[in-house]
Please model this.
Amino acid sequence: MMFEPSLTKGVLEVFSPVHNALSTADEQATKAIDIQHANIHGVGDFSIWEFSGNPVYHCSYDYFAANDVTAIHLVLFSLEEPYETQLGHITYWLNLLKALTPPQDNIAFGGRIQQLLEVVLVATHADLADITRAFSGEFSYDKEKALLKEVRNRFGNDLQISDKLFVMDTGASNSKDLKLLRSHLQELRANIISKCSPMTQLSERLLAALPSWRKLSGPNQLTSWQQFVNDVQEQINPLVSQHHLRTLAMQLHSMGEINIMQSETVQDVVVLEPRWLCTNILGKLLSVETPKAIHHYRGRYRLEEVQALAPESDVEELLQILDAMDVCARDITSPSMVDVPALIKTNGLHRSWTEEEDEDSLIYGGVRLVPAEHLTPFPCGMFHKLQVNLCRWSHQQKPEEEGGEDSDGDIHLWANGAKVSQAGVEAMILLVNHGQGVEIQVRGHDTERAKCYTLLDTICTITENLLASTLPGLLTAKYYLSPQQLREHHAPIMVYQPKDFCRAQIQRESSLTNTMGGYRESFSSILAFGCAEVYQQGTLATDIHISEVPLLARRKLCRMLDPPDALGKDWCLLAMNLGLTDLVAKHGNGAPNSNPDSDSQQAELQPSPTAALLQEWSNRTNSRVGVLMTKLRELGRRDAADFLLKASPVFRVNMEALTGAPNGYPPTCNGGTSYNSISSVISR
Model:
């Protein structure tokens, strides 16, 4: 995993997911995911999956990266870049690996993860960066200790990061550094294999049958899990059970022979030849070298063009799987067209709000979603996937008879942006701050306040559902934008954070000071477009129930409060302050005695006492965020209180109760998987 050299033109540009450098073809750049089976001399056999650093391909990575605990993840960065850029690149990739790892429902002691992904950091271009060699012969990088310390501080709880940084001149294949890396890979490989089940005779026969199955599978190397089971039972062993076969299939998945794809929309699809999908299909479909027509700059393909890129494939079946992967969206209104947002080159919008004459009767509001833990951009492909989901949602909204310009359900896409409309209300969805935030801005007439809130809530739900299903390990925070500055098209815009609302609420205030504009704005106007029906149905900041705090945020609180504190400022005292003294006796000796990094600790993690405490306390009547925040402050744990503030929701509305409001109506997407499971995939 490494950004392509042609793209690393400085830290800001490299994180801007659509960058001018993308339009230039680079012959040497990796296309999508390059897969090869290789024997590394003196180490053994590996299936090597090289993920392109070109952000145009990233919208498919959630199906192939970090989905196998037996893999070793090499993260590469160039020493030709400044130190801050190196750290930025490493943080980006490690945050992606962390974000792709689903959290376990049962939180372990200290919020630890059962099986951490193995990560090795490799610094390249040592020869070009004039790195000196130590007396023993290997490169000596003066910032190695500082870099490793910083990276481990940020990700040490979530990923198993090797203790050594490997500094490379990849042109020198017999160098001491490459020998050290080979030796380390051999060590990791032996350790991983010692914990894996050995190959059985049945798995050997299954492996031998794969080449002929690939030939027989026709143009597409896809099959459903049920068909895979039937084939094994018919051709190899009629007595094999589904459960046993899943174990064998996971072995083949770990060997890179097949890929088992799992998500809400792709359930148990088996890719018999991963190279076919990862390199041939995605590499061609998303390549910048594809011949250009005008509609390609808008990220659109005609069906026959997709067929030309994959001449051997069954296009309908292929598009079903790509649609379910959120790589592309079919346009229901013109079935011969396919939207591929990752390919959009057009910037800006013909009619952005700043250029329009504003009517006095328009009201504005909006939110910004940001990663809560690390100051790093969202994984590049996330916004492309969001654009696909917005296309899908907007196609559902379209009435049978076609309206004129900006009719209901219309969507306009451009690089890093989208604009949708519903019931006379408009929304703009933008990737801002060099990829570090997603902004959703909504406007409508002041007679449509409830509809404005409903559209904002719907698009937030689509975005949050997408993040939960594709980046389950990424914790986000929701900030609110100044309605008055949005209306005045003022830049930069004042952003209100959860802590601002909590402080004001504790002081019994119902408005916030806009320090940029020098005026106050009411909670109602910031959170609910000034709509009394919506605002009165809502629960605010400190009054929100503790069960609404996301699982990832609770896990982080467990990391802070589980370890015993010398002054007693840990979960024990918190339990007593919350009136749950019986839990102290029950979990009192819950701190593991073993070294947290030992194998025994990895094998059997003890449950988190803080998680048990929060679960038990959530059954009490006063279990609100504000109460817990106050108790943490009294305990002297301002760090935990501040984090709780940052990660907690600010405003929750019961949308069902709102449907009775005069201007309200039920949102078309209500937080389930309805919008996200439109594709009838081959797995079904």
Summary: Residues 34 and 46 are 13 Å apart (CA to CA). The chain has a mean pLDDT of 84. The two ends are 33 Å apart (CA to CA). The first strand starts at residue 33 and ends at 40.
